[in-house]
Specification:
- This protein is mainly alpha-helical.
- The protein folds into two domains: 105 residues, Multidrug-efflux Transporter Regulator, Chain: A, Domain 2; 38 residues, no CATH class.
- Helices cover 54% and strands 4% of the residues.
- It is built from seven helices and three strands, in the order βααββααααα.
- Strands 1-3-2 form a three-stranded antiparallel sheet.
- β2 and β3 form a beta hairpin.
- α1 crosses α2.
- The chain is elongated.
- The model has no long low-confidence stretch (mean pLDDT 81).
């Protein structure tokens, strides 16, 4: 049986074939990660190349890449064609660098964590996790973090 690739897929078909829920397809579309159209009956329709994009989005999310970074990377690629192996190589290289930086930061956190256990954060000037380089001391005296959090909550 030959599949007619020119026939767009319904949102249900996209969800079923990509392994995500219909709500997730709607969410990805609302966030601008994928594009679809509406038919004469106002039903969503998607080209088949959206299946590859959703697969890439799922892989990136599994790796912990934020949706904003995924969107920025996909927006930099041509929208008028299906993603290629060359596109994937570009995306994976970009995300590999991001993951390596995160792994490095987490490794540093892990290695500094042992020195912090049991201190109860009583020494803000010496805590390499909560106050590296005593940057809070440069921000002023007193409950600097609490004041900043309170101001942020009021702004929201």
């Amino acid at each position: 049986m030959k599949i007619d690739v020119s026939v767009p897929l319904s949102v249900g078909a996209v969800a079923s074939r990509s392994g995500v829920s219909v709500a997730t397809v709607h969410f990805y579309q609302a966030k601008g990660l994928i594009q679809g159209t509406r038919n004469a009956g106002n039903q969503r329709r998607f080209n088949r190349d959206v299946l590859r994009k959703i697969a890439i989005i799922k892989i990136a999310q599994r790796a912990g890449i934020p949706l904003a970074a995924i969107k920025a990377a996909l927006d930099a690629l041509p929208a008028d064609r299906a993603l290629t192996a060359k596109d994937w190589a570009q995306l994976s290289t970009q995300w590999r660098d991001m993951l390596n930086a995160r792994i490095h930061a987490l490794s540093q956190l892990r290695d500094q964590l042992d020195g912090c256990i049991g201190c109860g954060c009583l020494s803000m000037t010496d805590c390499p996790l909560r106050n590296p380089g005593d940057h809070l001391g440069q921000a002023g005296e007193g409950a600097v973090l609490l004041e900043a959090q309170g101001a942020a909550a009021v702004a929201d």
